[in-house]
Design a protein that fits this description.
The structure is a single chain. This protein has 154 residues and is mainly alpha-helical. Helices cover 56% and strands 8% of the residues. The chain has seven helices and three strands, in the order αααβααββαα. The chain has helices spanning 30-42, 45-50, 55-67, 72-78, 83-95, 117-139, 143-153; strands at 69-71, 99-103, 111-115. It has a three-stranded antiparallel sheet with strand order 1-3-2. Strand 2 (99-103) and strand 3 form a beta hairpin. The protein starts with 29 loop residues before the first helix and ends with a helix. Residues 1-6 have low confidence and may be disordered.
Length: 154
């Protein structure tokens, strides 16, 4: 397969051969998505650190705060984390007094995670910074592009 050079201003996806022969590895959709994901994964570190939390701790405590109470299984799904990481991180958050857990029903082994008053205070202190940073990121796009991007991601 011949590798062709393009003008850096052109879009490699404007004209795609059905067999993909004109795409380079750098043109694969996964490449920019992985780059964006890596950037966004580090994005909340500033405000997480200001609250004395790791990124996984911030993701989980802010998710629990949003829901007020959430089953552990759903917490893993919503946070896109594996169950083992969620379990370890929730234990750390319990030790910090930010969340608590309880059985969903008597005799049931399923746990539900609840935000504590201390956890709500921590999230409320930091959430403004998080919202402002994400708003700045999204406002770099015009309204039409934001709406289109949201639709594509959904």
């Amino acid at each position: 397969m011949a590798v062709t050079k393009r003008n850096s201003e052109s879009c490699p996806w404007e004209h795609i051969e059905p067999d993909g022969s004109n795409l380079t590895v750098e043109d694969f959709l996964s490449v920019p998505i992985v780059r964006i994901a890596a950037h966004l994964k580090r994005f909340p570190s500033a405000y997480a650190n200001s609250a004395g939390l790791t990124l996984p701790q911030w993701r989980l405590v802010s998710t629990v705060a949003h829901h007020r109470s959430i089953p552990m299984k759903q917490l893993a799904e919503v946070s896109a984390s594996d169950k083992a990481l969620v379990s370890r991180t929730v234990k750390e958050l319990i030790a910090k007094g930010l969340v608590s857990t309880a059985s969903m029903k008597t005799g049931d082994r399923s746990l539900e995670c609840h935000i504590t008053a201390k956890g709500a205070r921590v999230v409320n202190k930091v959430i403004g910074q998080a919202r402002e940073r994400h708003a700045r990121l999204l406002l770099a796009l015009d309204t039409e592009d934001r709406v289109r991007l949201h639709g594509l991601l959904q």
